[in-house]
Model the fold of this input.
Amino acid sequence: MAAEPQKPLMPKATAVWLVDNTSLTFEQIADFCGLHPLEVKGIADEDVAKGIKGQDPVSAGQLTRDAIEAAEKDPKIRLKMAAPKHKMPAIKQKKAPRYTPVSKRQDKPDAVYWLLRNHPEMADADIIKLIGTTKATIQKIRERSHWNATNIKAVDPVTLGLCTQLELDLAVTRANVKRERAAKRAAKTGATLKPLEEAVPAAVIEDDSADRPEDETSEP
Done:
């Protein structure tokens, strides 16, 4: 389906200027401005658009002098909007936060704890984007100051249905790439990354057996 021809942003003001400053026909002006020929005739007779200041389509980059002169010589020519001199960049739509069903929101702390323990290379922003939590919640779970800290267990977010395995793998890969780039920049400047034990609190890097059922940790 063909797109409709673009029209001036201020059609009546543009029509006023064309009526006053050119010898274009009412039909030509009406076609370019998206108006009815009788409405353009009313503008010429000062019955329509009284008090509206004319808008110069040439200075606005909507028409060229050559296009107007050619149309003045041939009433059959229909004017078209001139191509913009500067191409405007496309506006990137901001992605909406991930929606999590109410029934699964209570599982987020378990998923956050699992990510902090198993993927310390992931930044808070990576975790927020992956499962839709908040920075404050992550910090409280990291410090074990969460209101439900005693009941939080490390559970894979994929198992909880908070993300897919593909999304998790992609998030981990991106986090590792960022970490490698940071390491290279630090090497160039002579700085070094903190050891994992210093970067992540001991409360997070604790023995996995703390969250395992007794039948998994005890000997047969």
